[in-house]
Amino acid sequence: MKPLLRLLASPLLDVLAGPNGIDRYLAAVNPLWSVSETRARVLQIRHQTRDTVTLILQPNANWLGFRAGQHVRLGVEVNGVRRHRCFSPASSTHQRNRLIEISATVNPAGVVSQYLKHRAEPGEILTMSPAQGTFALPVPRPERLLMISAGSGITPVMSMLRTLCDEDYPGRVTFLHYARTQADMLYRDELYDIARDHPGITLVCAHTRQRRAGDLHGHLTEEQLNSIDADFTAAEAYVCGPPGLVDTARDIWTAHGVENRLHTETFTSALTMTAPATKGSVVRFARSGISATATGASLLEQAEASGLRPPFGCRRGICSTCTSRKFSGVVRHVLTGEASHTEEEQIRLCVSAPSGDVTLDL
Amino acid sequence: MRTSDKPNPRLTLEQLDALARDLDAIREAVIADLGTRDAAHIRRMMRLQGRLELTGRALLYLGFLPPVWLAAVACLAISSLLNREEIGHNVLHGQYDWMGDPALNSQTFEWGSLGASKEWRHSHNYVHHTFTNVLGKDRDIGYGIMRLSREQKWHPYYLGNPLYAALLMPLLDWGFAFHDLEVDRLVRRERTWSQNREIHRRLRRKIGIDVLREYVLFPALTGPLFLSTLAANACAKVLRDLWTSAIIFCGHFPDGVATFTEGELANETRGHWYYRQLLGTANISGGRLFQIMSGHLSHQIEHHLFPDLPSPRYPQIAPQVRAVCEKYGLPYTTGPLHRQLGSTWRKIFRLALPGRTRSQAYGTAA
Hints:
The complex is a heterodimer.
Chain A: H1 2-8, H2 11-17, H3 22-29, E1 38-46, E2 52-59, E3 72-78, E4 81-87, E5 100-105, H4 111-118, E6 125-128, E7 144-150, H5 154-166, E8 172-179, H6 188-197, E9 201-207, E10 216-217, H7 222-228, E11 236-241, H8 243-255, E12 262-266, E13 282-285, E14 290-293, H9 299-305, E15 323-333, E16 345-348, E17 352-360
Parallel strand pairs in A: 7-8, 7-11, 8-9, 9-10, 11-12, 13-17
Antiparallel strand pairs in A: 1-2, 1-6, 2-5, 3-4, 3-6, 13-14, 15-16, 15-17
Chain B: H1 13-33, H2 36-59, H3 66-92, H4 117-130, H5 161-168, H6 172-179, H7 183-187, H8 193-221, H9 226-252, H10 270-279, H11 288-293, H12 300-305, H13 313-327, H14 337-350
Helix pairs in contact in B: 1-10, 1-13, 2-3, 3-9, 8-9, 9-14
Organism (chain B): Streptomyces cellostaticus
Pfam family, one (chain B): FA_desaturase
Transmembrane segments (chain B): 58-82
């Protein structure tokens, strides 16, 4: 596939494809194909627990792979609008056919997770960023590892564990996972199987809302860690979960003076609704590094008042000349009052005014 | 029935504001409903365009068989028509910006036309759609080469009106590309050569690549069939341009369409802009296939009121727009292609001659 990709990206083909670009013709044959975009086809959708969803993805040839623990930014089209969310693959980096598995907890108000749980179908095409992040299994592999996760924070450490199993890792791994109840635990059967088949891997299941099952109960404490392994600070620790879990871990490791052995990743909810304050909020022009206090005027006027010169035409929402990228924040259409969503999108500066803090690509 | 020299129906400021509210409400209902269907439509069109073009190019390897050659020309003409109108023109209007797909972003999209997107966004999206049918402002009235409004001052040059139209039609894409250079204004010294330098460079590059592709590389790739392929490619473009020009001439030139003066632009409200779009534009009636083949420019009225709504929405909202027109006593000019085209051509001939003679009412529906 790689030599074919190189051929497709040659200047001759570029001229033959013309302004439409080669991708137009590739997509006319197979929507997964592209010379510029990393895309993935949804092969399978599984529902491991009541409020999670697991997807098996087949990426196209542009996918460069990942290191166990890293995350990718997936573009999912919901109601025609491309939304971006970060997910950590849970699969082994040695997975056959380079398939990628992701699991997400469904957020009751989450546009993307609700969509993936209830409406997505196998065959759908998603876009992918390259793998990102420094929360990753190091090379060479450390001799002792401690992995702590909660909820869907299990995905990056699951990838690490599966990768180590595929490599016949000779060291010791302690895998501590927090789930509300046994029924909420992702990858439960597979984890028990792994622990049974690998003497070096110790699985500890902690439940925060169920007393009967599990090895531990309640949220992370130092006592819990001591009860598992009195020498827990000797291992390289990888912690992934909600901010509460990560903060507790950081306090414990700092108290021992070994925070250099602690690696953390936290999942924050994408729902960062801004207050609908019109005046007094901040308009950030990211590219030029300028910030201004919102005056209630249109973003075009605000940009000009800040000394920027974005292109414009009609100044009344007809011609789209001033269309620019909004990175984040809610804007209001000054003529109709309609409010935008909070995510990255194209907006027309002349008929948009900020509702709360807004960051623009200007 | 009305003709272009009947006075435009006048509305009070309050009526214009109410008109704006009614039309805004139609727009908002569509915006709230945008979704999967709209995304699926543009993707389907792009897939269809890609497949037709690939099929056409492939068929030309059998271009020595006349029926196959004709089929190839048909595939290429339709693909290039879809590419220019239903895809390019509509994407450049920002109709799909809300999807957040970089391949459909109006600011970075480069369309399959000889002129560059950047110039088109200025001359079309901004100048033509903002100053629609305002004499001295909208350069699409006669495209700077024809006399298509009685209010344009007559000059012996306009005796060639029908000839200019006949020459422009098969070469529309070239005409539009050079339209951006505003040569007429250059001649009148309203524009300097230096203003054109960058546009010139972009134009040269884009035209150069297009000529290389259509008339050198693809013919060469078919080896001994070089001339047959070259002819097919040229025929496809000419057919597309004949069809496209027929459609767009009917958008603003038939009887019943009004022109305006610059004086009307002072402190123009949204309502007055809507009013100008309604009076300055005409539709062509036809079925679903015709609508797609015209890039939905058969719904010029709806397109001019809401240039940023995805085009398949135009036929859906047309009954509502028509009801608004009736409510305010405004004309909604429409008719079948042959009638609108006949009316346009009669005008092209009539206005070749001087004078402000009263035109006859040529059956435009009011």
